[in-house]
Structures are given as structure tokens and as C-alpha cells.
Design goal:
Layout: E1 3-5, E2 12-14, H1 28-93, H2 101-110, E3 114-120, E4 123-131, E5 135-145, E6 148-158, H3 164-175, H4 185-194, E7 200-204, E8 207-215, E9 218-225
Antiparallel strand pairs: 1-2, 3-4, 4-5, 5-6, 6-9, 7-8, 8-9
């Protein structure tokens, strides 16, 4: 049995007493206050437990959401990397087979062309040029490496009184005789000389030769893998 002190005489009495046996103080109101106070405390405890439980649930849900987002981000990143790898792989296959940069610029420098090397975005470019009073000849060799060439671009500008076709056909015909795998050098050279006067293209052993003749004073030859 619980014992309390009488609010009036301060003596110990039973919690169940309705009146103090010593001084007669009515204890009903005090009992009601104690019960009300206890009930309020119990409500606050339950409320705190509910709030704490909701916080824990929200925290777990937030972590789970973050985990899902991270997995999704990782998955997207992996897909992007696979796509980039596939793209790089497809680019690497588009080379002129068994053609090295030196196969082109080596012969041109022997003829007096000036060689300049450039590098941008992990790609290489060799530029051979010859400038004289009557013409300006340039050959650009582009590749991912010296033995991974994907474009040979020759440009001929004519400043002389001779017709452009006559002036540049031997130069562009010479460039067309690049020694790639299964090349038909004589066929390529003769085709260029025969078609130097107009826009034209041909595929020889998987390599595309294209003449651009949009200007009276200029001709361009592009040599690159055939697009499939």
C-alpha cells in the first residue's frame, strides 16, 4: 500500500484514504489531481514514443531512398561508360588498314614538303605543306596514333596561269597512291587524274576516295574508310 503525506498536517497516511485520519483534511481532490497528473504523463510518454518512432521510420526511408538513387546513378553511369566504350570501339575500327602516317609524310618530305605535327583531344595530325609562287599544296594526315589513320586530306590551291585541273592532277594523283592494305595504287591515282575536274567519289578496297571541285582555283582529295 502506497503512503503519502497529508497536504495539511504533513503526516503520513494511506494513499487510499479519502480524509486525513489525523486532521480530517479531505483527500479526494488531491487524489483526482494525482490521477490527472499521472494520466497526462502517460499521454506525453506515448506521444514522445510515437514521434520517436516516426522519426526512425523517416530516417530509414530516407536512407533507403538515397540508396536507391545511388544505385540508379551508378547504373546510369555504368550504361554511359558502356556506351562510350562502344562508341570508342566503333571509332577504332574505322581506320585505313595498315597505313602509317610515315607512309604518307615520309615521301612528301623527301619531295621538299615541310612537316608539322599537332595533337588535340588525344588525336594526332601531321601537316605537310609546300608553298610556291604558283601553288599552295597541303596534306593533312589524321589519326589516333601513327598507325591508326582515319583520314588523309589533300588540298591544292592554284595561283598560276595554268588551268587548275592541269596544275594539280599530278599532285593529287600522287597522294591517292597511299600504300594501305590491298591498295590498288595505280587505279586510285589514275581515277583522281581522270576525275579532277568535278565532284566525284569511288571506293577502292574498302577505302573511299572523294574529289571536291567547288572552286575554279582549288581542288580537295579526301581518303577515308568507307562508311557502312
Amino acid at each position: 500500500m502506497a503512503v503519502i503525506k497529508c497536504p495539511e498536517c504533513k503526516k503520513e497516511i494511506s494513499e487510499q484514504a479519502t480524509n486525513c485520519p489525523n486532521c480530517g483534511y479531505p483527500l479526494g481532490k488531491e487524489k483526482a489531481k494525482r490521477q490527472a497528473s499521472k494520466g497526462l504523463s502517460d499521454c506525453l510518454i506515448v506521444l514522445f514514443l510515437m514521434i520517436g518512432g516516426c522519426s526512425v521510420i523517416a530516417f530509414i526511408a530516407s536512407n533507403k531512398s538515397d540508396e536507391i538513387r545511388l544505385k540508379g546513378s551508378s547504373s546510369s553511369s555504368n550504361v554511359s561508360k558502356r556506351n562510350q566504350a562502344a562508341s570508342v570501339s566503333s571509332i577504332q575500327k574505322a581506320y585505313i588498314p595498315n597505313l602509317e602516317a610515315v607512309d604518307v609524310y615520309g615521301n612528301l618530305t623527301k619531295k621538299g614538303f615541310i612537316l608539322k605535327r599537332e595533337s588535340t583531344d588525344n588525336r594526332l595530325k601531321w601537316v605537310c605543306s609546300e608553298k610556291k609562287s604558283g601553288h599552295n599544296y597541303t596534306v593533312e594526315i589524321r589519326g589516333n596514333n601513327s598507325d591508326k589513320i582515319y583520314l588523309v586530306e589533300a588540298t591544292a590551291l592554284n595561283y598560276s596561269h595554268i588551268s587548275t585541273n592541269q596544275k594539280v592532277k599530278d599532285f593529287l594523283g600522287y597522294v591517292a597512291s597511299v600504300p594501305y592494305e590491298n591498295a590498288k595504287q595505280a587505279l586510285a591515282s589514275n581515277w583522281v587524274k581522270s576525275n579532277i575536274h568535278h565532284n566525284s567519289s569511288i571506293v577502292i578496297s574498302g577505302i573511299k576516295f572523294e574529289i571536291i571541285a567547288n572552286s575554279d582555283r582549288a581542288r580537295m582529295l579526301l581518303i577515308s574508310p568507307e562508311k557502312k
